[in-house]
Structure formats: C-alpha cells, structure tokens
Amino acid sequence: MKRISGYAAFLLLLTGMLSYQIATAQSVSNAKQRQDDKKGLAAANAGVADDRRDLDRLSDLVMRWDHLMKAGRDGAALQHVEEQIAEELRRDLRETAIQVQKAEHEVKQSTAEVRGSRREVRREAHDGDQNQRALRDDRRDLRDDRRDRRDEVRDANKAEDILARKREIAKEMIALQKRIDADKSADPVLQAKKRSLLSDYLALSREEIQLGLREAAEDTRELKEDRRETREDRKQ
C-alpha cells in the first residue's frame, strides 16, 4: 500500500478544513438569506392587507359622497365626507411615498447583492478546477441576483409612476374644488369631473395592490430557492 507523505497528508487535511469552513459559511449565509426572505414575504403580505383596507376605506367614503351628491344633499354632511376624503388622500399619499422609498432601498440592496455574487464568481473562477460545484452554484446565485434586481427595478419604477399619477390627481382635485367653491353655476359639470378623478385614484390604488401581490409572489419564489439551496448544501 502506497504511503502518503507528511506534506501530502497536511495538504489533504488543509483542503478538508477549508472545504468544511466554506460549507459552514455557505450554510450560515443561506440561513440568513432564508430568514431575510421570510421577513420580506411577511412584510409584503402585510403591505397588501394594509393597501386593501385603505382602498376599502376610501371606496366607502367615495360611495357615501356620491350618494349625497345624487340625492342633492348639501351642507354639513357633504362637507364632512369631503373633508374625510381629503384627509384619506393625504394619508394615502404619505404611505405611497414611503413605499416608493422602500422600493428604492430594495433596489440598492439588490445591486449590492449582484456585486457580491460577481466577486464570488471571480474568486471561484480564479481558483480554477478546485471546486467546480462551488463555481456552478455561485454562477447560479449571480443569475438569480440579477433577475431579482431586474424585478426590483421594475417594481420601483411602477411604484414611482403610481405615486406621480396620484399626486397629479390630488393636485387636479384641489384646483377643481377651488373652481367649485367659486362658481356654483358650473357645479354639476365640475362635480362630474371630480367623480371621474376619484375613480381614477381608486384605480391606481388597485394597481398598487397588484404590485404588492407581485412582490409577495417574488418573495415566495426566493424563499423556495433558499430551501432548495439548503437541501443541496446538506447533500454535499
């Protein structure tokens, strides 16, 4: 039986130690990523639930306002509902702006993850044929990170577009209300325009919910990928 030299034995031991350290580090990294994705999914689902409650609340106010207008009601009741709608719009715009900031932050995080994956691929490629499986895994991670960043950029752009359109509608409604207050003779025409603007605003809120649902679906997909990577690491 061929004996292994002391130096060769040392190299084997060192290689084994390095492989164990790399596997352990990868396992810890995957666990953290899985925990982050769970939090992201929970936040996305909570955001959708909040957006639905906001939409229901605003829809109820608009229906109440529309009922009072069609019934020819005026005075304190109508003014109170209009004030509630105005407050709801201000609050909704603040929340939408916060969601846009969150989306922009997620784009920055995704960009950082892509850069980190690129570094890992370069490092593994530099090591040559020593660990082809690790190189293959890192290339897959880079591909996934690039896809995630593309999705984050798309969602951020959509969120910014929704916010801009909501702000424009709110601006039009303020100007319209001034005209209504100044010229009661044109009130029916202007109120019809106001009803149309409110309908457009509600449609944007529904688009916002769809955006949240898409984000939740993406987080669910990422969580499934985390679990798959964990199973593969255990087999190594």
What does this protein structure show overall?
The protein is mainly α. Helices cover 92% and strands 0% of the residues. It is built from four helices and no strands. The two termini are 29 Å apart. The mean pLDDT is 83.
Mean pLDDT level: 83
Distance linking N and C termini: 29 Å
How many alpha or pi helices? 4
Low-confidence stretches: none
Q: Helical amount among residues, as a percent range?
A: over 70%
Integer-rounded radius of gyration: 28 Å
Pattern of helices and strands: HHHH
Structural class: mainly alpha
In short:
Helix content is 92%, strand content 0%. It has 236 residues and is an all-alpha fold.
Task: Provide key terms for this protein.
236 residues, mainly alpha, 4 helices
SSE topology sketch:
Blueprint: H1 6-70, H2 76-126, H3 132-182, H4 187-235
Helix pairs in contact: 1-2, 1-4, 2-3, 3-4
